[in-house]
Amino acid sequence: MADLLSSLLRVAEKAANVARVCRQESHLFQLLVQEKKGDDKNKKFIQDFKTLADVIIQEMIRHDVEARFPEMAGFINGEESNKFENGLGESVTVTVCGTEEGTAKLLATVLDGDHTAASLLAQAIHQDPQTTHLTTEGLTLPLSPSELGIWIDPIDATSQYIEGREEVLEEGHLFPSGLHCALVLIGVFLRSTGQPVMGVINQPFNYKDPAGAGWRGKSFWGVSCGSIKACSESRPKPGPGGGLSVVLSSSEKPVVKEALSSLCGPDKLMYASGAGFKILCVIQGLADVYVLSEGSTFKWDSCAPHALLLALGGGVLDLTQSLKSSSGAQDQLTELTYHQPYAEYKGADRWANHGGLVAYRDCSQLRKVMETLKGKL
Ligand code: 2IP
Ligand code: CA
Predict the structure, then answer these.
(1) How does DSSP assign 256-304, residue by residue?
(2) Atom of ligand 1 nearest to the CA of 292
(3) Model confidence over 152-175: pLDDT tens digits?
(4) How far away, in angstroms, is 69 Cα from ligand 2 center?
(5) The whole model's pTM is what?
(6) Is 248's C-beta closer than 6 angstroms to any atom of ligand 1?
(7) In CATH, what is the architecture of 142-159+176-377?
(8) What integer best gives the mean pLDDT of the chain?
(9) How many other C-beta atoms can be found within 10 angstroms of the C-beta atom of residue 211?
(10) Which residues form the catalytic set?
């Protein structure tokens, strides 16, 4: 399965390149950011260009993985549906064709004949990516593709991707918002149990060359299968002066903010955009725990970074379920799983993490957070 990991790293880099092209090519960028509303929205124009960029990245990942691992066909899912109905009621299915010309022709039909945009997008989709310089040699996993499913989030932290604020990242410092929060997330789980076994994250806007050569991305990966645990990141060293730091969504409930502020001190309570990015902050040690009490994230947001935390000895719990366990003993805690929908919901909500989540690296830190939140939610 090392070849699955290297294939996912490669296709995530291709996806990151499409995300960068959509922002760097001014013609595509104009489509990306313009709000097409009301009468000025051309009825043939597909919903909005951002959704199209998401869909085409997701379909590119699906196309490339299915071509390499046909046994996974039908088990590669993502946030977006590739079936659109445009303003005239015409139904269009967006897919990646075998040739760049074929993809450009198909995209032009959903871009109301905008051949410039269609060709630029098709070129990025069929372009071979730079190598990711990450070695996964010698990694063997006792898994076959027919046992696995995939969750794709083509561009997580959509709002930060569109807004596009640039940050010069500094080692060890959490920047709460900006382009660096936008992530390509590809998570692999066991169809039988729903456990995450492999995760690939690509941060397309990790470093901007001051000499004008544009943005460079950064890749992260992790595998966790039984006793086999490996990750591109090493476990972060404990921060100076001990203590516990927590990262939250800015929209978190006041009762949770107050409880955790009293636990870790107001200066160790941080906020950041992007569900995937906040879990990445825990992976990198920029925060020790990420708590979310709402059901506002989905399987595609959490599956990939969950696998990296498992590889590092941590995990991502269902918060509500885990708070219910009386003892709070480790074996009573409920890790998120990725194979079963919530049957009582419809559409994307079937795949929401309805019980909220807690992302953690260290069990003793997790216990302190769970004790603080017990009885408050
Ligand atoms: C979003 C994205 C948002 C997050 C939300 C996710 O996915 O990660 O940033 O909200 O929960 O579903 P918040 O930033 O408050 O954590 P997407 O950007 O793909 O819609
Ligand atoms: Ca998302």
Answers:
(1) HHHHHHHHH-GGGEEE-S-HHHHHHHHHHTS-SEEEE-SS--BHHHHHH
(2) 16
(3) 999 999 889 988 999 999 999 999
(4) 25
(5) 0.94
(6) no
(7) 3-Layer(aba) Sandwich (3.40)
(8) 90
(9) 6
(10) 54, 79, 153, 155-156, 158, 301
